[in-house]
Amino acid sequence: MRSNSVFLYAPLSLCLIFFGMPSDASAQQPSPVLIAAADAPPETPRPQFALAVADSADTKTPSSTPQGASSSQTPIAQASGEKSQQQKAQEQIKEQEQQRVLGILPNFNISYRSDAVSLTAKQKLSLAFHSATDPVNFAIPFFVAGYHEAKDDDKGFGWGLEGYGKRTGAAYLDSFTGNIIGNGALPALLHQDPRYFRRGHGTFSRRLAYSLATNVICKHDNTGKWEPNYSNVLGNIAGGAISNLYYPSSDTGFGLAISNGLLVTAEGGLGSIFDEFWPDVARKLLHKDPTHGLDAQIRAADKASRQAARN
Q1: Which DSSP category does 220 fall into?
Q2: Does 139 fall in a domain?
Q3: Residue 44 maps to a domain
Q4: What is the pLDDT of residue 52?
Q5: What is the phi-psi region of residue 158: left when phi exceeds 0, alpha when psi lies from -120 to 50, beta otherwise?
Q6: Domain for residue 101, yes or no?
């Protein structure tokens, strides 16, 4: 997969860093408990599996289970609990699919919720496909192609209308394969959550470090533990390898696929910075809240916690 993310996110991320942080970061200072935990990445929601087991354990009491009742009712209760978590995940996905930067750019792969639940394999693939086929993602490659043609990249495509068309198609395929493999197929196979879980509180430096770290670490669905983000890194490398099929032969090769995949992974940090700080800047400059009050709830909880600690 070719390096296209920097074309979109580099100027935007630099603007976010320039504009926004001191006043907003101080407005969202965490409680003492959060400060103590800030050295580690914040916890993402408990996975569906754990929630289903917990719900089943809470409902399984001596008074609610008649003597001599069949133990076959337990899997039914567990299945019911799991289904409710899947439904909750689907509702949260619908919220994410309404998220757009400036009302235009799709921002579907971000969760602003502290109660977000893990996605099923089908939901991961569906979210990745929806993002990859959004009309805006069909339009962006036209600008990317113009950028690369102006830089005199990929000369094997030629020039003029034909060359521009080939560059546009290649740019879209780069985006499509990256989304489907890195945000859908590999997360489904490896049980990793492909979404960016916005931290949204703490100091600017800690939020910046967290946003960069999420390109190489992520949460496992079942264990809830942080682990290497194989899905993102391998997805970028796989996208680079697949691009060998449609880029000019002079611009392909195994080594180039590896280097391009690692470069795209590094550039993903710009996108993560944008995702972390965009709501702060949107509230400050545009007077709009992309989190729809979720940040305000976190600040209120932090304030209540600090007051309780003082008392």
Answers
A1: B
A2: yes
A3: yes
A4: 39
A5: left
A6: no
